[in-house]
């Protein structure tokens, strides 16, 4: 049996991008290289449809797979070397492209590595983008059925072991991989990188519409694809401060079947293994929602948390096949669950975190991590600006963060007159991308305007404080009108007041009772950060950030008064190691 007789359908037709139909598993996909081709062979990218004389793999770059409803999906295929008989079967991976990404290109480096390791790997462009037909409808039921249709095609046309198949992808492909795992029992495991868990949590986190990333997604979808009308309508509705509660409820219901977290029970029922990779500076899909889903999974699972913005930690591994921690671990995961290798990936600690601004990683048994302790601090008001004779110093410029409960009754008012110098990044996306190369977002807390923001600072630390997980603020607030927004920034502050941004979070009110004091929780995005000895923790609260849409119309004013009293403490809770 020649290597060339491994694969189904005529290789030349595939290399030319002709449409494929299910035609049985014994026709040929790839052909052997001629002597001249073998002598000049350099890479599969230069010789599509030809079995590599170097490693026996074959790349078919321009396939078209017909889905369940006749929609044609642009795809490519990497096939491994055959070492056995003509009926030899291989584990297989279905890779789904990211939003606005071409599936024929995005994973090519990782596909080749996996094929060299004995996997059949197909990658396709999601419905509605580029050459894939149909409309973009954000992980709709049709998109999930596409994943199964691609597996149908593989089962009929490629030498795959149907009992050892995975779904995988980055971003949009990650979400669809998890949904497919919950709906199609043929998928044994899923590897989801930079995806989401609960879509409504990401689009409208604590009532805060994600202006920057919603705009990026909307524009990218319109330029590279054909969005269904409801997609842009929903985005615009979320960003509009005048959208009704009933309309928001409609969008939340629309998002539910598009959320992997909806399928947790189905995944748990069959004990399906799940691998997740998330990045700490991912402001599109923050780690928090995925950590909540991870905690709810009861089967074999692993999560790696990395420095980087959305998809940045995984990209070089996907496109170039370069050494890459998330994909290196994912490859171990595939080997364990699709090949049965006892490589320890399922018995070692389930959580791995990269410490920000370092190459160090720490492991935790699971999530929530039993190794962590919640450290509670108490916030005290800054009060009015005044001169204090007891210390012969000025006060009222900042509030206090203390390990002891606050004993003062007072309030701090901020108004949305303008943004402050506190920010998730002066240039959205690019600023946080800089953190991946150890360029932090920096701000002098002394420059925070007292009318538009308020800062709270703790004493200098006597030992390094290791923050691991999701910090939380629990405030009491009185909004001046029905709509208000508070953005919170957690800083590592040095002796002269310069703060390195550790993480941030936001909570937005849309239908509050003006003048009524309410509990006002703010959840920061998960992080792993070491505050060094001699530095101290700082928190800044203001009313705006470029990431988030304003809850009010242009020119409309609101104020938020933070209330403090010994009977109702405002706290900062830091998960620490």
From TrEMBL:
Domain of life of the native organism: Bacteria
Matches recorded under SUPFAM superfamilies: alpha/beta-Hydrolases, Galactose-binding domain-like
InterPro entries documented for this protein: AB_hydrolase_fold (IPR029058), CocE/Ser_esterase (IPR005674), FrsA_esterase (IPR050261), Galactose-bd-like_sf (IPR008979), Xaa-Pro-like_dom (IPR000383), Xaa-Pro_dipept_C (IPR013736)
Keywords for the protein's UniProt record, in alphabetical order: Hydrolase, Signal
Domain Xaa-Pro dipeptidyl-peptidase C-terminal: 331-573
A GO term, aspect molecular function: dipeptidyl-peptidase activity
Signal peptide coordinates: 1-27
Protein name in UniProt: Hydrolase CocE/NonD family protein
Organism of this sequence: Collimonas fungivorans
